[in-house]
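Deviation from plan, reported transparently: D-ribose complex.
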Amino acid sequence: MKLAIGNDHTAVDLKNTIKSHLEQRGVEVLDVGTNSTQSFDYPISGYKVGTLVASGEVDGGVLICGTGVGISLAANKVRGVRACVCSEPYTAALSKRHNNANIVAFGARVVGDEMAKLIVDSWLDATYEGGRHQRRVDLITKIEEGGAL
Ligand code: RB5
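Because the crystal trials were delayed, the predicted structure below was used instead.
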């Protein structure tokens, strides 16, 4: 299992905490940065992780900015990305089980270290259920490809 992780300046410490946590789980982590606390434009990290996920170079991604919102919005502009902002583990699990989220995002200004670990673990441990959910995920893809519903 290989995951990409990216963040902005608000989330360097939390990124390193989550990176260590993932490595302790046996996950290989590709860190796209930033590793500086100087002001950093989150779309750059969102784009990098999004393209790594969409191309299949990694199995999924973790994105962290102040809220998780901006960085996930950026990643979701990459075709094939389904990035979900999660502030607790239930939504993180359902984002995989129902929405087949391939990136989990959260906010360093919103969740603490232990909640962030729970969110990541819940997302990683969940399995996409397919079935009726596939029809809905397919409809999302259709919108992404410019189709009308
Ligand atoms: C940076 O101040 C902040 O806007 C950013 O980390 C993020 O929360 C944006 O969505």
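Residues 2-144 form a domain with the Ribose 5-phosphate Isomerase B; Chain: A, fold (CATH 3.40.1400.10). We consider this an acceptable substitute for the interim report.
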